[in-house]
Amino acid sequence: MPNNAVIVVDDDRLTRESLCEILSDLGWLARDANGGLAAFASIQREQTDMVVSDVDMPDISGFELLARLQGIQFPAPVILMSARADVELIRRAREAGAVDLLAKPVHIEPFTNLVSSLLPGTENGERQNHG
């Protein structure tokens, strides 16, 4: 079975690179997109098992990306992130269909625990062998 493919969507290059590096170190196929429109196009072309997206981006918001994905019946989980995360925004994200909304800067352990819980076959580092 191929590695799970995760796309990280954020207009901040360092955030994208950091999260992709964490995912790659855990054995997942990580790719990134500089914004919601680029991510949407990529998701339509390539296997994507999970989306991790910033909420506030210049082209379209993470909420708009989520709505577009729902419009094409995208079956995989979507995690949103925001520097302005609060109880209300977390509630809105979950109501919109996101699995969760993480506060930025994203902390490694809660992030990897959440991703691991959502992607099958990733427990206990099973994906670390690129074999």
Q: What is the overall number of helices?
A: 5
Unreliable spans: 123-131
Span between termini: 10 Å
Structural class designation: alpha/beta
Question: CATH homologous superfamily?
Answer: Response regulator
- In this structure, how is the largest beta sheet organized? 5 strands, parallel
State the helical fraction.
Answer: 40-55%
Kindly state the number of beta strands: 5
Using the alpha-carbon principal axes, give the shape: globular
Q: How would you describe the oligomerization state of the chains in this entry?
A: single chain
The CATH first-level class comes to Alpha Beta
Strand content: 15-25%
Tell me what the CATH architecture is.
3-Layer(aba) Sandwich
- Under CATH, the topology can be stated as Rossmann fold
Topology:
Layout: E1 5-9, H1 13-25, E2 29-33, H2 36-45, E3 50-54, H3 62-71, E4 78-82, H4 87-96, E5 100-103, H5 108-118
Parallel strand pairs: 1-2, 1-3, 3-4, 4-5
Helix pairs in contact: 2-3
Write a structural description:
- This protein has 131 residues and is α/β, with parallel strands linked by helices.
- The chain has one domain: Response regulator (Rossmann fold, 3-Layer(aba) Sandwich), CATH 3.40.50.2300.
- It contains five helices and five strands, in the order βαβαβαβαβα.
- It has a five-stranded parallel β-sheet, with helices on both faces.
- The longest helix is centred in the first third of the chain and has 13 residues.
- The C terminus is likely disordered.
